[in-house]
Amino acid sequence: MELTKEQEKMLSGERGKAVQKAMEILTGLGDIYGAEKFTPVQSAHVSGVSIRTAGDAGLNFIEEMVEEGAKVTVPTTINPAALDLRDWDEMGVPEEISRKQIRIIDAYREMGADPVCSCIPYLVGNEPSQGQHIAWSESSAVIYANSVLGARTHREGAPSALASAVTGLTPVYGYHLDENRSGSVGIRPDPDLFAGGGTFQFSVLGYWVGANFPESVPVIENLHPNPEQEKALGAGMATSGAIALYHIPRVTPEAKENPEICETDEEASFGTEEFEEVRGELDQTSEADIVCLGCPHASEEELRRLSCMDVENEVWVHIPRKLRKRPDMKEVYQRLREKSVKLVCDTCMVVSPLSEMGYSSIGVNSAKAAYYAPLLGDVEVHFAPLEGLIK
Ligand code: F3S
User: Fold this and answer.
1) Which of 39, 68, 78, 247 is 20 to 30 A from 162 (CA-CA)?
2) Would you indicate the residue range of the signal peptide (predicted)?
3) CATH code for position 372
4) Pocket of ligand 1, candidates 119, 317, 321: which has the most ligand atoms within 8 Å of its Cβ, to mutate?
């Protein structure tokens, strides 16, 4: 890679050990992927925050970075942790997990990151604009930023996102370049399947696209999703595939600005058979100890809608603490409390220690949660639309 004089100093250690380590990570990636230079990033979002996914190795890496003087140089947010940082005791989280988790959060805080502990940073203050270069990890946020907001990011891992946060730089390759942002496969969903208006169908569609076209830039035809449905669609794609960008003609920003981007040589249809294939794969049980909503974290709109529905089962909704604190949401939260819906902040059903907390099965309406909760949370999953789960 061609480095500027300042970047050479950063790499040689003249700007400190942490900056040097970050530059080594980024130049290493740049060399592997054939980048010629760096570009500045406007923000970073770092995943791998939960002690359950980061482990002791992750904790040591982050604390070492702090000891070596790491400070973020661009606005930086972080992903959900393993517990609600305020109510972890009440949630029944084992103390050893909480102690280590709090050390991770403290380390990020020390570096200057905003500990939002949410996978929807774009709704809690870290919203990039179209064309901006950013360095985000958390696959559901990456695909939302690239597709719905038109920003440009790799699907970073936690170390490279942190390295970009510290240096303010990312190597230029992949989705940072125009030539890699064109659609590669057209997907034609049966619009009748999507008439209900929820997010479940979009989550299923996304999961199917990711499983069948894992390296693609899909173009989703015939649909006009709202932001919550776009969130579910992208999270599904990024779960079963390595997808980090999709387009929807006349809806997503790059497709609106440049319709040719949606022209593809390959086409595929999505109907009832494909829908049932995914549901059959992910739905493991018809019973659930609790219903866990908010994967990705629930938005204001989703909470408002839930507060107007009949809820009979025990429901937890995972949300960002910043949304929990919003004074204008007081009435909504009051209505949800009356329905015994519990708002859980800073964490989610996948990265929290559900089995250690005594749960063996959960109901979810998100394909991402349905895929990862059995793998990482050691619980069985009932995968169904929202209406069916809460009654
Ligand atoms: Fe977010 Fe956890 Fe789902 S991090 S996308 S709620 S698995």
Assistant:
1) 247
2) none
3) 3.30.499.10
4) 119
- Nearest protein Cα to ligand 1, atom 7: 350
Q: Are residues 262 and 349 in the same domain?
A: no
| Count of the separate structural domains present in the chain | 3
* 146 and 22 in a common domain: yes
If you average pLDDT over residues 237-257, what whole number do you get?
A: 98
CATH code assigned at 153: 3.30.499
Res. 241: pLDDT tops 80? yes
Q: Which residues line ligand 1 (CB under 6 A)?
A: 79-80, 119, 140, 235, 295-297, 318, 348, 350-351, 368-369, 372
Query: Could you list the residue range(s) of the whole structural domain that residue 355 is in?
Result: 283-390
CATH number at residue 238: 3.40.50
CB atoms within 10 A of CB 245: 28
358-388 residue pLDDT tens = 899 999 999 999 999 999 988 999 999 999 9
Q: How far apart are CA 369 and CA 166, in angstroms?
A: 31
> How do beta strands 315-319 and 290-293 pair?
parallel
Confidence at 119, pLDDT banded by 50, 70, 90: very high
Residues 148 and 31 in one domain: yes
pTM, whole model, 2 decimals? 0.97
Q: Which of 249, 280, 311 is the last residue of a domain?
A: 280
Of the three residues 159, 177, 195, the one that is the final residue of a domain is: 177
Provide the pLDDT for residue 7. Answer: 98
